[in-house]
Every structure is written in C-alpha cells, then in structure tokens.
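Fold it.
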Amino acid sequence: MERILIVDDEVAICSLVARILNHFGYTTRFTDDGESALEIIGAFAPHVMITDLNMPSMDGITMMRTSKDRFPLIPVIAITGGLMTREEAEHLGFDGYILKPPVISELLEEVQRVLEEKVKSILVVDDMSEVRFILKEVLDRLAFNVIDVAGADEAIDVLKTQTVDLVISDCSMPGMAGTEFLSYVKEHWPDLRFIVASASFPQEEIKRLKPDGFLRKPFDIEDLKKLVSTTLTR
C-alpha cells in the first residue's frame, strides 16, 4: 500500500487530498509546514510527497530541494493554485503537478503516474524466506516497491512482465545458480542494476560478471541501505 505525504498550510486542502487518497487505498499523512514534513519523512517513508508552493517559513520549492538532497529517490509533486505552470514546475525539479482545487480524477491520475514512473522497484531473490522478509521490510521503509521471490526462475518470470530498477540476489539457491542468473540478466537486460548478496561468491566471478554491488552475508543493514541508494542514483 503506497504512502503519500501531503504538505500544505491550508489544512482544508490537506484534509481533502488525504480523504480522497485514503478512499482509493493509499495511506496518507499530512502537515502544514515544510520543516515538520522533513521530520515526518524519515519515519513515514512516503513513496510520494505532495507539497504546496506558497507556505510560511519554508516554501514548496525549498521544501522540494531540501527533500531531494536528503531523500533523492522520493518524488515530489507540486500542488498549486496556478502560481506556475506544469512546465515551470518540472523545470524546477518537481516530478508532478496538481492544480488547486484538486479534481479527483486528475489527482488520482497524477499520483498514479508518478508512482509508476518515479518510484523505484527492487526485485529480491533468495531461497531463505527470513532473508527475503528482512530485505523487504528494510527496503519498504526506504519507500521502494519491493517484489520478492525464492529463486532465479521466478525472478526471470517477473523480469519478463514487470519493470524493475534493481535486482538483489543470493547466489546459492536451488535450481539456476546465482552466477548463471546474473549472466542471464546481463545478457537480456544489460542496463538492469544487480547487487549480489551472498555468503560465498568467487572473486573471479565478481571480476568476470561485474555486478553493480556486492554484499557479503551476513550484511549490515546500514551497508545495505547505502549500497542500494548509491547504486540507484549513480
């Protein structure tokens, strides 16, 4: 269930947008100023943020830029009463644009578009359910869309039907070996980023197959977060 953070000093607008999005299955939080929004982001981990432009203490442009400095993978939608056009908003760095007062169909369409185009999807591949659970929990709290499967064959089926931005895969799994899976991905999806998370992966195979990152199990959660973020933003 996607999480949306709404930032607007007009509480009525916040409440209206939140009620609409809640009705259609989203989880929302809202606040009336940018500084408190930045505090909320860390705990709430929104998949998308919607911010007004004209607010006291911190305007929407500063809010967006500060958010992107700290949380570069969280897209930000501008909501405005006509202070700027969509083209101007996108030129400034916003990922979407909603006009006040929001029309339900337009609001839902823009939020869904940004979710589909901007929110990163990560495919986790590991035959150990406990490892998949931990990875899914950690990555979900970083506002990624996470798909998890138990083996390479299932992963390939996902890759054939869904858009994925990053694969995090074990190597010692039943069925197709991790090295074979990495080779297959490199051949069929050469631009897809791939992190190997394994207790044993031959050094010569790392040099030959050149994954985008490597985590040796058991790995540190902070190392995982850092590697995923740098892999997706470089």
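The chain has a mean pLDDT of 92.
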